[in-house]
Write a structure and sequence with these properties.
CATH class of the largest domain: Alpha Beta
Largest sheet: 7 strands, mixed
Radius of gyration: 20 Å
Order of helices and strands: EEEHEEEEEEEHHEHEHEHEHEHEHEHE
Bound molecules: NADP nicotinamide-adenine-dinucleotide phosphate
CATH topology of the largest domain: Quinone Oxidoreductase, Chain A, domain 1
Strand content: 25-35%
Structural class: alpha/beta
Helix content: 25-40%
Number of strands: 18
Distance between the termini: 11 Å
Number of domains: 2
Number of helices: 10
CATH superfamily of the largest domain: Medium-chain alcohol dehydrogenases, catalytic domain
């Protein structure tokens, strides 16, 4: 079968479309013939995390398709079922943090940028009926992360003011849709005027330039909760926009891992600073029910064929996307 893998060389040089063996499901496993998959910023990070001497890996965390074979003992899923992949491996119950064995699909375990994938049956769910194959294929990682960040960690509820920097990000578009559905008011930022316009069309109440002075742009409007995933480039401005006693939740650092905090201002402001990452299967199932109830569909950027993987990776690397980039098998 064909798969987008990373092998033999580091960085972009190791990325390629290669022929790999079609996998066979073992006990408790299912094989899915993938129809679509979705890109995440993580796929770019893996190009550097996966070393030249590591075994080759199939990239990709998000995907959807049809179960075409099942191993012995499989009870929850049957051949022919339309399913969606939950890439949060080995984390089942909602908990303060994932268990030691938690892992994200798509390195070191082979991922979804392939014609077929093998997964434990516990990692698949029925494809939401209101989504197309493209929409289902890009949903999981970003939507799960957004759901836990907003509701389990940020405790966002009706009437809250939520600030989301980096409107173009796939996760940010889910944050916008979910916060809106929960009755919150959403402020977004983006470096691109076009993306700011799009964010407002999609339901943001205000969208300001990421590179502007947010204090000046937003006046006295402060956030109950800031969901921060841009990192060092926006962190200080994000913290300045939190109401006293409010919360900043972080799960990403696209633009730098290291930030400085003025501790005195922080404790006088009685702020809460929370980390989060992905989510459990309980939260995944809650998220699927939430999007069905509110008829939420992922904001689609471009759809590429598997053969066009390089253009898809470049689009994400250059930050051109608004929403989710898909691959079609
Ligand atoms: N821990 C987890 O479980 C988890 C899960 C999902 C994602 N993440 C992380 O969350 C982040 C977003 O993921 P994604 O897949 O949604 O990424 P993405 O689609 O690549 O989006 C990144 C966005 O960040 C903004 N940005 C990047 N550099 C910036 C800079 N220097 N200044 C201002 N804004 C900047 C851009 O927004 P504009 O183009 O609008 O300016 C860009 O579109 C990544 O760091 C990813 O690794 C973590």
């Amino acid at each position: 079968m064909k798969a987008v893998t990373h092998a033999e060389k580091e960085g972009w040089d190791g990325l390629g479309l290669r022929a790999v063996e079609k996998p066979e499901p073992g006990e408790g496993e299912v094989r899915i013939q993938l129809k679509t998959a979705g890109l995440n910023h993580r796929d770019l990070f893996v190009l550097n995390r996966h070393k030249a001497n590591d075994p080759a890996v199939v990239l990709g965390s998000d995907g959807a398709g049809v179960v075409d074979a099942v191993g012995s003992g499989v009870a929850r899923v049957a051949e022919g079922e339309e399913v969606i992949v939950n890439p949060s491996l080995n984390w089942f119950e909602k908990s303060a943090a994932p268990p030691e064995e938690f892992e994200v699909l798509g390195f070191p375990t082979d991922g979804t940028f392939a014609e077929y994938i093998i997964l434990p049956e516990a990692q698949v769910s029925a494809k939401p009926k209101h989504l197309t194959w493209e929409e289902a294929g890009v949903l999981s990682l970003g939507a799960l992360t957004a759901y836990r960040a907003l509701f389990t960690r940020g405790l966002v509820s009706e009437g809250d003011n939520v600030l989301v920097p980096g409107a173009g990000s796939g996760v940010a578009t889910f944050l916008l849709q979910f916060a809106n559905a929960a009755g919150a008011r959403v402020i977004m930022t983006s470096r691109s005027e076009e993306k700011r316009k799009r964010a407002v069309e999609l339901g943001a109440d205000v969208a300001v330039d990421s590179e502007a002075d947010w204090n000046a742009e937003l006046g006295s409007e402060k956030a109950d909760v800031v969901i921060e995933s841009v990192g060092a480039a926006t962190f200080q401005k994000s913290l300045n926009q939190v109401k006293k006693g409010g919360t900043i939740v972080t799960f990403g650092a696209s633009a730098g891992d290291v930030v400085e905090i003025n501790l005195r201002e922080f404790f006088y402001g009685q702020y809460n600073f929370l980390g989060t990452t992905m989510g459990s299967r309980d939260e995944y199932e809650e998220m699927l029910q939430f999007i069905e109830k509110h008829d939420i569909k992922p904001v689609m950027d471009e759809v590429f064929s598997l053969e066009e993987y390089e253009a898809a990776f470049k689009r994400m690397d250059e930050g051109k996307q608004m929403g989710k980039i898909a691959l079609k098998m």
